[in-house]
Amino acid sequence: MSAGTIGAFIPIVALSIPIVAIWTRHKTRIAEMQIRATAEDTAQRAAQYVAKTQELEDRVRVLERIVTDKGYDIAAQIEALRDTKAVEDYRRDPLN
User: Fold this and answer.
1) Is the pTM of this model over 0.70?
2) Nearest of 56, 52, 85 to residue 64 by alpha carbon
């Protein structure tokens, strides 16, 4: 290689360095945004799971209380629940 060829490569390399730096910074920011979006989605799902788990725990507590409470007549409670459901169904669709 001649001195003229090497001299031509020096400005090209000098201009390539900032371009590569900008491109690398851009790729890093995109990766960070993707990580943030994934983290937010994961947090939302976790909150939904917590709410659903709490709801199920509450339902199990009610069932445990019904089964373990000696003063209650289980058959009467079941009938009361059926009556309540019938009233709620009627309120939703009175024609049926």
Assistant:
1) no
2) 56
